[in-house]
Amino acid sequence: MDFLSRYDLLGAFWVTVRLTVFSAIGSLVWGTVLAGMRVSPVPVMRAFGTAYVNLVRNTPLTLIILGTSLGLYSTLGLALADETSGTFLKDNNFRLAVLGFVAYTSTFVCESLRSGINTVPVGQAEAARALGLRFSQTLWIVVLPQAFRAVIAPLASVLIALTKNTTVASAIGVAEASLLMSEMIENEADKLFLIFLAIAAGFVVLTLPTGLFLGWVAKKVAVKR
Amino acid sequence: MRFTRMLRVGAAVTALALAAACGGGGGGNSGKSLVQRAKDTKKVSIGIKFDQPGLGQKTPDGKYEGFDIDVARYVAKELGVDEGNIEFKKAESAQRENMIEKGEVDYVVGTYSINDKRKEKVSFAGPYFITGQDLLVRADNTDITGPETLDGKKLCSVKGSTPAQKIKSDFSKQAELQEYGGYSECLAGLSSGKLDALTTDSVILAGYAAQNPNKFRLVGKVFTEEKYGIGLKKGDNEGRDAINKAIEKMIADGAWKASLEKHLGPAGYKIPDPPAITEK
Amino acid sequence: MSAPSVLYDAPGPKARARNVVYTVAFSLVLLGAAWFVVSGLNEEGQLDAELWKPFVADSRIWTEFLLPGLGTTLEAAAAAILIALPVGAIFGIARLSDHAWVRALAGALVEFFRAIPVLVLMIFCDRFYYLFTDISPDNRTFWAVVTALVLYNGSVLAEVVRAGILSLPRGQTEASLALGLRKTQTMTLILLPQAVTAMLPAIVSQLVVVLKDTAIGGAMLTLPDLLSQYKLIANNYNNTIPTLIVIAALYIVINTILTQLAGRLERRLSRRNRPPAGVREDHIERQDVHLAETKTGEASGA
């Protein structure tokens, strides 16, 4: 077992955790905006929301992540970090990967939210309009808070999927858990099972409590109807 | 009822798939020497690279071309096999030993460096070419002159490759590393100026430079030594000697140099002297 | 009634004016983004005709690279889903077993494989086959990718199957047992066939997931799938970015067709199986229209 201490397992999983947290926050924000667009009164926004979700959701994540590095950075010159810092590539790749995960995961957040909006009784929105609330107010004050409570369980699945998806960041050289796994297997050919179990255990530790906790929250805050 | 039929079809497919998966291996040609096999069957299968311009590349015609391919064909010819009876198989770097050990291919000509770790599993003939680690930069770049001038530069390499690590540990500690799954990603960044250098074996880089002589330039300061050999089944001394003889003949009759000039010449690559056979 | 949505009223003159402003502003933002992309590509010469011409002028780019790659992608996805289905069915049923230890074992396995990234499974399977089996290198990556996808999607489908069976009315089991059918017969003759028809859309959408995940094998292992072809194409035509764009378009077209198929299948099944309207309107895929048009406000959150 002591060969494990030669590798920075915790460091690699820390990168995985950071990728997950930043991407989750970004996806939640952008996904909510997208959902808002898809139900908004402005046709251009609706069309954009629909087109965006359908295009991005049907593209492999690997291609999106490669696209952030080869397309956004290499070709379009989008730099998300300080070029003179000495760790530019590392920071930039990390942020590009987060951007890619946000772009992809937000479509799933958007679709979950949209189904959540549909669980809110029509009367709620009608009452809000009768009170003179505008679309943005109806959505933000009345409908979305209830919708969010209804979709915590689906959002938890999205979050767990995101945690696992962060491994794809290794395609552009982000040093997260799966990249370390490849490196370990390369160097310690005879310890395949140990390495696999160590990495697998890391992901079980990350995803299982998340699922259980959010499942509990979902029950706790569910709107009783 | 419909469902049970579906289930049965599903089960059959599964069984077939598993059978295919397990039966896929083992093309038994064990025991006999490469020379004898070539004589008996008049066929060889050769492991090559598909994605190395100038060395081993699959073209849109479905053909293969490059220096490694020419060497592979020359050896096959010397073994008495017609060009039409050569079967080329894709040999990814990580799979080369495995393919040879399991008899999937008769020999491998694919940027295959001779080293002791590999010699535990396979035998080598050659070397047929000696190269070393080098740097590829944009044609207009002037400030990168060698591995020690990379501090603060963005250096690209492919995943799991030691060359980049070597530069960071031995030459330029402040170099920034970008790792990708393949060289084409590195080249995209290099050509747009977002990455500064790509490092790997000089001759591989020359292949890319030869494709785009106006875009890329080889620094030409080799700082390691890699001997490319032809890998074949461990202990097949007769086969090894036959391949060695073929390599010597190829060097002697000028085909060796002509092939290098044809495939790597446009890069301005200085063709080294032919190596002496060491794997005897 | 005339309102297009319950979320907002039919726009009056003021709202219409405001909407025009929003439309213009949002369009400008979109145009700005598009301009940034197009001009950036143009500056780097990525829009030069000679980089794109091969895709129309040179059919070999399709016959030698793209189509064989697409073939591998489809083969891997098809093999994975065909094997994952029976595996998923077995584990889904095992989780409903009367024996506690079977339930526990199946549950643990399903949860384990659902928690692990597909990429980690792929890396493991590839190495495992390399070390312990005789699968030829040509097929090894393929089966490593398929195995990883089966392990993951099998456990996802197990949950789909379990949920599908649990969603059936209890009376089905009771009636079947009352008729003297054994437990196995009840499962295979009564419950599964009904559950499968209900699950079919979920299965087709899972196919989209599988298809997209094969790309991981192409980029990280050495599966010669559609995505991985960009390396070979770029080697010959020096057009990495255009090639990636074309490949992305191909994925989008195929997956959109599959998604549409899932939607159509679901609509048809819901028409056939559930005559009373408005019983199951809680699926995401169906809601192409927004809130008010679908009158789904009264749907339960289940």
From TrEMBL, chain A:
InterPro entries hit by this protein: AA_ABC_transptr_permease_3TM, ArtM/GltK/GlnP/TcyL/YhdX-like, MetI-like, MetI-like_sf
Transport found in the keyword field: yes
Membrane topology per record: Multi-pass membrane protein
Alphabetical list of NCBIfam families matching this protein: HEQRo_perm_3TM
Location in or out of the cell: Cell membrane
Species whose genome carries this gene: Streptoalloteichus tenebrarius (strain ATCC 17920 / DSM 40477 / JCM 4838 / CBS 697.72 / NBRC 16177 / NCIMB 11028 / NRRL B-12390 / A12253. 1 / ISP 5477) (Streptomyces tenebrarius)
Name of the protein this chain belongs to: Glutamate transport system permease protein
Domain ABC transmembrane type-1 per the UniProt entry, residue ranges: 13-214
Main subcellular localisation: membrane
Record keyword Cell division present: no
The family this protein is said to belong to: Belongs to the binding-protein-dependent transport system permease family. HisMQ subfamily.
Keywords: Amino-acid transport, Cell membrane, Membrane, Transmembrane, Transmembrane helix, Transport
Membrane-crossing residue ranges in chain numbering: 12-39, 60-81, 93-110, 139-162, 192-218
From TrEMBL, chain B:
InterPro entries: Bact_solute-bind_prot3 (IPR051455), SBP_3_CS (IPR018313), Solute-binding_3/MltF_N (IPR001638)
Matching Pfam families: SBP_bac_3
The keyword Disulfide bond belongs to this UniProt entry's keyword annotation: no
Signal peptide coordinates: 1-19
Ranges where the Solute-binding protein family 3/N-terminal domain occurs: 43-267
UniProtKB keywords: Signal, Transport
Similarity remark: Belongs to the bacterial solute-binding protein 3 family.
Protein name listed in UniProt: Glutamate transport system substrate-binding protein
Species: Streptoalloteichus tenebrarius (strain ATCC 17920 / DSM 40477 / JCM 4838 / CBS 697.72 / NBRC 16177 / NCIMB 11028 / NRRL B-12390 / A12253. 1 / ISP 5477)
UniProtKB/TrEMBL annotation, chain C:
Keyword Ligase part of the UniProt annotation: no
Residue ranges with Basic and acidic residues bias: 279-296
Subcellular location field: Cell membrane
Family: Belongs to the binding-protein-dependent transport system permease family.
Principal subcellular localisation of the protein: membrane
InterPro entries: AA_ABC_transptr_permease_3TM, ArtM/GltK/GlnP/TcyL/YhdX-like, MetI-like, MetI-like_sf
Entry protein name: Glutamate transport system permease protein
UniProt membrane topology term: Multi-pass membrane protein
Region span, Disordered: 273-302
Record's keyword terms, sorted: Cell membrane, Membrane, Transmembrane, Transmembrane helix, Transport
Chain ranges of the ABC transmembrane type-1 domain: 70-262
